[in-house]
Design brief:
- By secondary structure, this protein is of the alpha/beta class.
- Helix content is 35%, strand content 18%.
- The termini are far apart.
Length: 448
């Protein structure tokens, strides 16, 4: 080899190091892979591992037995795009700017995908609901692949894809990237309305307990069958980790963006209310050999805590404003910092039809409802009516008895909460939804 050709190759060495540096860093540190699975519109109490009377989630139940199950996890906002932005940033909605479906995450807000990509991780997301399309959510940043193809229609105008469509491409990507540190996010939209009856899953649940199924309204039976159907496809993802010998090298996180009211409080849906059936979500973490097995954590936590916890487990600088939940994995008594912390939540009115904008002032960025959990207590403030409510979730999980009169300490909490939101809000972006997007959002009930 001539000195000239050797010199040319040496000149390329810095570029090669720059390109490979991140990947080598991730490999050298032995940091784990991350598989994030999110279920849309899935309330915790419809998972069998969370007490549901039907075996809706055998694969997630098995995952919980191999890891840590949080029994009292709260969504920070019952809207798909904003809630996933909270999961991926560790910030409250008013802090990351995505306060409605169709309003994307603000530029400059760091995400989990961006942080892990900078560490040399391969990153991919496979999403299945229209509200998570890249132009509407702003969540594609940091992902090498952001697969948001929508292949089916219902309600004439709304698009999604089902679990049997989103899982195969995710599995293919996983198998092709199994030998490099990866962050894979797979989103399942299936439990969302219109609650399609999954005949095979419906029959399995009916055989398991005919009396329980018979006692449920048809809407609830269909909803349960959707969750069972989704669990079957999640099982294929988890099985692939086992077949690829990746279980001990991979942190698996399973959660939901929010729950769903199925008629409780005279309401079907989510987004407009903050009752427990809408805010309480499953949260399961598993990492064999590193996290406890079969542990249940009962202290209240939030989806805002997911990103900071993952960063701590990977020994990386924290992300967002949530809490690192690693101390809750132990057996000792937790400090009040964890047991009596305030976990905030908020929701906002939907985007208005253009006609009504003529007759009403521009919407500000104050939530229609906001509140917090503090131990067993739940405080809710209606900003329009300036009314406060307090519930004891431990003794009154159905939120029937308003205890505000018994807790004068919370008398000024509503205005204080609004003040905090105003002071810490970022300038929310405008909706990026075009006319097609608006029709699809309207079909989901996200446009007034």
């Amino acid at each position: 080899m001539s000195y000239g050709s050797m010199g040319k190759k040496l000149a390329l060495l810095p570029l090669l190091i720059l390109l490979l540096g991140g990947a080598l860093l991730a490999a050298d540190t032995g940091r784990p892979n991350v598989l994030l699975i999110t279920l849309d519109t899935t309330r915790a109490d419809y998972l069998s591992s969370y007490g549901f009377q039907l075996p809706t989630t055998p694969h997630l139940d098995a995952l919980a037995e191999r890891g840590v199950r949080f029994s009292d996890a709260t969504s920070q906002i019952p809207l798909t795009g904003p809630s996933h932005a909270t999961i991926l940033t560790g910030l409250y909605p008013h802090q990351h700017g995505a306060i409605r479906n169709g309003v994307p995450l603000l530029e400059g807000i760091p995400t989990l995908a961006e942080r892990l990509s900078a560490q040399g991780y391969r990153t991919a997301a496979f999403v299945s609901g229209w509200t998570l399309r890249r132009n509407l959510s702003g969540l594609a940043r940091g992902f090498d692949i952001y697969d948001d193809r929508m292949e089916d229609r219902y309600h004439l105008v709304n698009s999604q894809r089902f679990a049997h469509q989103v899982t195969p491409p995710a599995l293919e990507w996983l198998r092709n990237n199994a030998r490099r540190p990866f962050f894979l996010w797979v989103h399942y939209f299936d439990p969302h309305s219109p609650y399609k009856k999954r005949d095979k899953s419906h029959a399995i649940l009916e055989r398991a307990s005919p009396s329980v199924m018979a006692a449920l309204p048809q809407r609830n039976r269909n909803y349960a069958s959707e969750i069972h159907y989704t669990d079957q496809w999640i099982g294929k993802l988890l099985q692939a980790l086992n077949e690829l010998d990746l279980e001990s090298e991979t942190i698996v996180v399973v959660t939901a963006d929010h729950g769903e009211s199925l008629g409780e409080h005279g309401y079907v849906g989510h987004g407009r209310h903050v009752y427990q059936e809408i805010l309480r979500v499953p949260l399961i973490l598993s990492w064999p050999g590193q996290l406890p097995q079969g542990k249940t954590v009962d202290v209240p936590v939030g989806l805002v805590d997911v990103a900071p916890t993952l960063m701590q487990l990977m020994d990386l600088p924290t992300l967002g404003e949530g809490m690192n939940l690693v101390p809750t994995f132990g057996e000792g008594e937790l400090p009040k910092l964890y047991t009596m912390r305030r976990i905030f939540f908020e929701t906002y009115p939907g985007a208005r039809k253009k006609f009504w904008k003529i007759f009403s002032p521009p919407m500000n960025f104050i939530p229609s409802l906001a509140g917090f959990r503090e131990g067993p207590l739940k405080f809710v403030y209606n900003t329009r009516e300036k009314q406060s409510q307090v519930y004891d979730i431990a003794s009154d999980p159905g939120e029937v008895r308003d205890l505000m009169a018994d807790y004068p300490i919370y008398q000024s909490s509503g205005m204080q909460l609004v003040g905090w939101i105003e002071d810490s809000s970022v300038a929310s972006g405008e909706s990026t939804a075009n006319s097609t997007d608006r029709e699809k959002l309207r079909s989901l009930g996200y446009v007034d």
